[in-house]
Design goal:
Layout lengths: L5 E3 L8 H7 L5 E8 L2 H12 L10 H11 L6 E7 L4 H12 L3 E6 L4 H6 L9 H12 L4 E7 L7 H11 L3 E5 L6 H8 L3 E5 L5 H9 L4 E4 L6 H17 L10
Parallel strand pairs: 1-2, 1-8, 2-3, 3-4, 4-5, 5-6, 6-7, 7-8
Helix pairs in contact: 3-4, 4-6, 6-7, 7-8, 9-10
Length: about 250
């Protein structure tokens, strides 16, 4: 899906094309966003801004996505776009734009702010696997590469089962924020053949090797993704790991 096996993970209101360019020397992928693409998620983003959070809220989110990806077309990094939506219909347009740029459409089933959950997006999708799979099917129908960003430790949600369902719906990758349950990565990797990206606390050799030993195909860095020294360190560990461990072939995992 991308090489090297290090991704930059989206940060609300911060992860744009310029941010991706700054990390392009170190990472194989960068996920821009999250970007609110429908009325419900945009109203939620407005409320988040009112209480002091940074958010992407362009007048035309689809034109914004297209322009951001076009800016990165000639950069040596694969680009994804993390999108929030409380409805399925806008997913198709966002996915088509990503596909036009050989990008990755990443469905946000991760964010847990009350405003986003009330709107019906973010983590809410993890609790409604049927609706999440509809989003994935819609995105995959365009031919785009599809990732699902999710989190561990959501009561009542089995991430391994969710991984199976989104794989059946057409997802190519699952991007797992492991929270404080790092071993969930092994359970997800054992349950599915999709590309598994492990996130949370990726800082040094110990954390990188732990996730890769659990079966992750790649790791991602979130908050410190603007620190070149850390990215160089994580990249070096990741490269060294796969010099002695065979990467999973496409369509296989675990």
């Amino acid at each position: 899906m991308f090489e090297p096996r290090l991704a930059l993970s989206s940060l609300s209101g911060e992860s744009d094309a310029d941010w991706a360019k700054r990390g392009a020397d170190h990472a194989g992928a960068a996920f821009l966003g999250g970007i609110a693409i429908d009325e419900g998620s945009r109203r939620a983003a407005e409320r988040l801004i009112e209480r002091g959070r940074d958010e992407f809220l362009p007048d035309d989110p689809f034109a914004f996505i297209d322009t951001q990806l076009e800016t990165l077309d000639n950069e040596p990094i694969r680009v994804g776009v993390n999108v929030r939506s409380a409805s399925r219909a806008p997913i198709e347009e966002a996915a088509r734009i990503c596909d036009d740029h050989d990008g990755i459409l990443e469905i946000n089933a991760h964010c847990r702010q009350d405003e986003l959950r009330t709107a019906g997006c973010g983590e809410t999708l993890l609790r409604d696997a049927h609706r999440l799979c509809e989003y994935v099917e819609t995105a995959a129908s365009t031919g785009a590469t599809v990732s699902v960003k999710c989190r561990a430790e959501v009561p009542g949600v089995s991430l391994p089962e969710t991984a199976k369902w989104v794989e059946s719906a057409g997802a190519d990758a699952i991007h797992v924020d492991a929270m404080d349950s790092e071993s969930i990565v092994r359970e997800v990797a054992d349950a599915t053949d999709v590309f598994v990206i492990a996130n949370n606390g990726v800082r040094d050799e110990e954390t990188v090797r732990e996730y890769l030993d659990y079966g992750a195909d790649a790791v991602s860095v979130g908050r410190p993704s603007d620190r070149p020294a850390l990215l160089r360190r994580v990249r070096a560990v990741t490269d060294a790991y796969f010099e002695t461990h065979e990467p999973n072939a496409p369509g296989t995992n675990g």
